[in-house]
Amino acid sequence: MSTHIDAKKSAIAPIVLLPGDPLRAKYIAETYLTDAVCYNTVRNAFGYTGYFEGVRVSVQATGMGIPSMSIYATELMVDYDVQVLIRVGTAGGLSPDVKVRDVILAQGSTTDSSIILNTFGAGMYFAPLADFKLLDQAYHEAQAQGLSVQVGNVLGEDRFYNDEIDRHKLIKYGVLATEMETPALYLLARKYQRQALAILTVSNHLITGEETTAIERQTSFDDMIALAFAVVKGL
Ligand SMILES: O=P(O)(O)O[C@H]1O[C@H](CO)[C@@H](O)[C@H]1O
Ligand SMILES: O=c1cc[nH]c(=O)[nH]1
């Protein structure tokens, strides 16, 4: 067991899907996995392991924000030897090219968080990037499924409520959407030399004000989750 995950090492698969929301973890396990076993309920950060079409996979909720993602990603890699980490999260659209319900593959992640500075020191602006193999595979799987995906830079913000940030400047520089965990996932995956990708569903649009209904969100979550499992199957 680790500090925040109460499971034997063997209880977690080498491939893990990472939703922020514990109820999304439960939904994924109950809807997509066979023989799913819940291995963690500490802090209600549910974790399950089961099989997707014969491949052993875990789903672990990470909670919200860079500190929480950092805890789960670190423990999964260091204490459970997880090799492949695929975030399945929601994001707020920024770019006019992004519409609600779209799926985004986060090629890289811009951040206002201090994690980069705290890791590399002043003057080094490390760019957290997706694992190219996973990204390439997800992109080609999406094409094969006829699913329209956007690929690019996402903002991984420290705050959900953030009046100070210049969103329009970020949009001009091609940032597609905003969320709160990907910089930590990509940075830590590089630190421990593992593979990571964030697949995101646009649940709302911060510039147009557009929102999705609960049912619409469910359907677009399913597109994202099906894509994540297609990547898992191709590993
Ligand atoms: O839907 P999840 O995966 O939690 O991701 C997004 O939703 C939360 C904010 O509502 C943040 O965690 C953000 O990154
Ligand atoms: O971090 C997030 C996630 C979804 N929608 C937002 O506006 N922000």
UniProtKB/TrEMBL annotation:
<feature type="binding site">
    <location>
        <position position="43"/>
    </location>
    <ligand>
        <name>phosphate</name>
    </ligand>
</feature>
<feature type="binding site" description="in other chain">
    <location>
        <begin position="87"/>
        <end position="90"/>
    </location>
    <ligand>
        <name>phosphate</name>
    </ligand>
</feature>
<keyword id="KW-0328">Glycosyltransferase</keyword>
<comment type="similarity">
    <text>Belongs to the PNP/UDP phosphorylase family.</text>
</comment>
<dbReference type="Pfam" id="PF01048">
    <property type="entry name" value="PNP_UDP_1"/>
</dbReference>
<dbReference type="GO" id="GO:0004850">
    <property type="term" value="F:uridine phosphorylase activity"/>
</dbReference>
<comment type="subunit">
    <text>Homohexamer; trimer of homodimers.</text>
</comment>
<feature type="binding site" description="in other chain">
    <location>
        <begin position="179"/>
        <end position="181"/>
    </location>
    <ligand>
        <name>a purine D-ribonucleoside</name>
    </ligand>
</feature>
<keyword id="KW-0808">Transferase</keyword>
<dbReference type="InterPro" id="IPR035994">
    <property type="entry name" value="Nucleoside_phosphorylase_sf"/>
</dbReference>
<feature type="binding site" description="in other chain">
    <location>
        <position position="24"/>
    </location>
    <ligand>
        <name>phosphate</name>
    </ligand>
</feature>
<feature type="binding site" description="in other chain">
    <location>
        <position position="20"/>
    </location>
    <ligand>
        <name>phosphate</name>
    </ligand>
</feature>
<protein>
    <recommendedName>
        <fullName>Purine nucleoside phosphorylase DeoD-type</fullName>
        <ecNumber>2.4.2.1</ecNumber>
    </recommendedName>
</protein>
<dbReference type="GO" id="GO:0006152">
    <property type="term" value="P:purine nucleoside catabolic process"/>
</dbReference>
<dbReference type="GO" id="GO:0004731">
    <property type="term" value="F:purine-nucleoside phosphorylase activity"/>
</dbReference>
<feature type="domain" description="Nucleoside phosphorylase">
    <location>
        <begin position="14"/>
        <end position="233"/>
    </location>
</feature>
<dbReference type="InterPro" id="IPR000845">
    <property type="entry name" value="Nucleoside_phosphorylase_d"/>
</dbReference>
<dbReference type="GO" id="GO:0005829">
    <property type="term" value="C:cytosol"/>
</dbReference>
<dbReference type="InterPro" id="IPR004402">
    <property type="entry name" value="DeoD-type"/>
</dbReference>
<feature type="site" description="Important for catalytic activity">
    <location>
        <position position="217"/>
    </location>
</feature>
<feature type="binding site">
    <location>
        <position position="4"/>
    </location>
    <ligand>
        <name>a purine D-ribonucleoside</name>
    </ligand>
</feature>
<comment type="function">
    <text>Catalyzes the reversible phosphorolytic breakdown of the N-glycosidic bond in the beta-(deoxy)ribonucleoside molecules, with the formation of the corresponding free purine bases and pentose-1-phosphate.</text>
</comment>
<feature type="binding site" description="in other chain">
    <location>
        <begin position="203"/>
        <end position="204"/>
    </location>
    <ligand>
        <name>a purine D-ribonucleoside</name>
    </ligand>
</feature>
